[in-house]
Amino acid sequence: MASGSVADQEGQVMLLGFWFSPFVKRVEWALKFKGIEYDYVEEDLTNKSTLLLTSNPIHKKVPVLIHNGNPIAESLVIIEYIDETWKQNPILPQDPYERAMARFWANIIEQKVREPAREALFSQGEQQEKKVKELKEGMEVVEGEAKAKLNDKTLFFGGGNGVGYVDIVLGWTCNWMETIEEVGGFKVLDPKSQPQFHKWMANFREVPFIKPTLEPKEKLVEFFRMVRQDRLGLVANK
Amino acid sequence: MGEEVKLIGSIQSLFSFRIEWALKLKGVEYEYIKEDVRNKSPLIFKYNPVHKKVPVLVHGGKSLPESLVILEYIDETWKNCPLLPEDPSQRAMARFWAKYADEKCLIAVWQAYMAEGEEKEKAMGPALESLAFLEKEIKGKKFFGGEKIGFLDLAVGWIPHWLNVLEEVGSMKLLDAEKFPSLHEWAENFIQISPIKECIPPREELVSYFHSALIYLRSLSANKP
Fold it and tell me: pTM of the prediction?
């Protein structure tokens, strides 16, 4: 159902973010995929703006999308909002079962890959070993799904339509996973045991609207090294 | 939609009941397959190999786990009695709050239930804070969905019945009618609605389950180095 021009839908679109955040990047990818113009506001996480604190009073975190003055928080919630508000270039599949499976896989990625990766980055010793093990198991699950869904003709989880929801949700691994490995001092990426995943990563990095958005690894490593030291310093001083 | 609908669920699982309520609200016929969470059958390994948990919806032979994902699927497949609102920003709010309720509120309540002694008082803090946010959200409304129950009501539908049991077994009081009058009133209204009131687990069953779960979980932490 056509709902007026893109300009009507747009109103004013503002994204509050931070350059290093993989969650913010997801939302940017969704906006760029749909060709939506938006104002990007770089937040200072050591000095959060009043706009951020009033737009997301529950979590006080980025990303926050503000559309026509209406704030939406949580990256996956924002992506679904974007998909439902701007109908061109659908991100989620149209079929209800396929949509449900895409949402299911997004949750798997969050629970089994993203969360253990973050915890492995900000821990050490035995605790880190435990999280790295969980992360490796999560990667096995992802490799399994990649093996099942991808081939020489189907490069992305979005299927015949190219990049889709699951690709956007998993996309942070392309850049941030190597960073987390280097800063955290462990290894989970392995082209031998994760061949399909590595093919997917290589293809995703080359997608024209994705490529220019990927932050240089050295910049991410420098930043996360500082955050890790800061966090572990705090823990040691308790 | 003439295809067969099966729900693999468990009487102890608050997540299972969300799905039953949604199916009953929409008048969808389904076969209920009972699982015991303490003694999982091969069926659950077959239909949910990744998480091995209930609930799992099987529709026309295709299986779907994860209760909030299932709720959205049900809403998109059977269009009568909509659970999510039409407007995208209201839909986003419902999803945001359902995620918050599961990831913050329920987890915090669970931690408080497990905690002992001094730790319990401390653990109750985040649980009370999350209930305060829900109190603010329900204020001035009969249900989270407005005049009728919706997606978010089903997602937090564990509060009226399960929270009370967790409070008793966990020796704590969280949902105080004076501190959270709107949430308390919502809880009273929610359990009076059909089909909810005809579809709740026997309290003794929940008390017994959460009591033995607590002993087991505490023994696990006692055995940690």
Answer: 0.93
Whole-number Å distance between alpha carbons of B144 and B154: 9
pLDDT along chain A (238 residues), means of 10: 44 95 97 97 92 94 95 97 97 96 97 96 96 97 96 91 94 96 97 97 96 96 95 68
Residue A13's H or E segment, with its range, is strand A13-17
Q: Establish if A130 touches chain B: CB-CB under 8 angstroms.
A: no
Label the pairing between strands B5-9 and B31-34: parallel
The answer to whether A107 contacts B69, with C-beta atoms less than 8 Å apart, is: yes
Confidence of residue B39 (pLDDT cuts 50, 70, 90): confident
CA–CA dist B36, B11 (Å, integer): 8
Task: Report the run of H or E that residue B95 belongs to, with start and end.
Answer: helix B88-100
Residue with tokens 């209760």: B67
Distance from the Cα of residue A95 to its chain's centroid: 23
Query: What's the distance, CA B159 to chain centroid?
Result: 8
Contact partners, residue B186, CB within 8 Å, separation at least 6: B138, B141, B142, B143, B144, B153
Number of residues in chain A: 238
Residue B69: which of A70, A100, A141 has the nearest Cβ? A100
Residues B9 and B20: beta-carbon distance below 8 Å: yes
Which residues of chain A make contact with B99, given a CB cutoff of 8 A? 74, 76-77
> In the beta sheet, which residues pair with residue A14?
A39, A66
Q: What is the mean pLDDT of residues B22-45?
A: 89
Q: Mean of the pLDDT values across residues B127-140? A: 96
Please say whether the beta carbons of A171 and A204 come within 8 A: yes
Q: ∠B31-A106-A76 over CA atoms, to 5°?
A: 110
**What does residue A19 show for φ and ψ, rounded to 5 degrees?**
-55, -30
How are beta strands A70-73 and B31-34 bridged, if at all? unpaired
Please enumerate in sequence order all residues whose Cβ is within 8 A of that of A71, keeping only pairs 6 or more positions apart, or say none.
A55, A56, A64, A65
